[in-house]
Specification:
This protein is an alpha/beta fold. The chain has six helices and eight strands; from the N terminus they run H-E-H-E-E-E-E-H-E-H-H-H-E-E. The chain has a single domain, classed as Rossmann fold. An eight-stranded mixed β-sheet has the order 3-4-2-1-5-6-8-7, with helices on both faces.
Length: 186
Amino acid sequence: MAQEGWLDPILRWLRLRRVMPHIPVGATLLDVGCGRSAVFLKAIGPRIKQGVGVDFKVEASTVKNIQTLPLKLFDRLPFADASFDVVTLLAVLEHLENEQQILEEIYRVLKPNGQVVLTVPSVWSQPVLEFLAYRLKVIDAQEIRDHKRYYNRSKLQAALTANIPFQDFQHDYFQCWMNNFCTVTK
């Protein structure tokens, strides 16, 4: 099991703070890559109608309006078409081998006018993250080694809109340009 560094929870909290205002009250939400503890879902639980988290690290559970399902993200999500108002991917897309297949599945499970809210590391963060992980050992080195890609605005926009009909691409950088924040709409 990977060893979380002391800085990981702080970075996660900053991501959550950036994302929370974009989650509508009463939404049905799918958190793709929710992590072992489903921290985001637990934090957002009182605000949403229902939340489902999927991740290969999480144990199956249902507590109040939050359900977690162990799932490896290969190509097909086990949900009906148009099931969710919002899908979140928080520091997840950079880990996926099959980025386009999962984005197509997310499009499928989103309701019309549903929104994707995501964060991914920027191209400028790679040397910083590697230094923090490998030299200072303050973040999880295994998580950094697992990154398949880093994004700038144009790479992220291409991933989301070139082959999938997502619309209304909204983007900005946060955490001193180390992370991308993005929303798109079905």
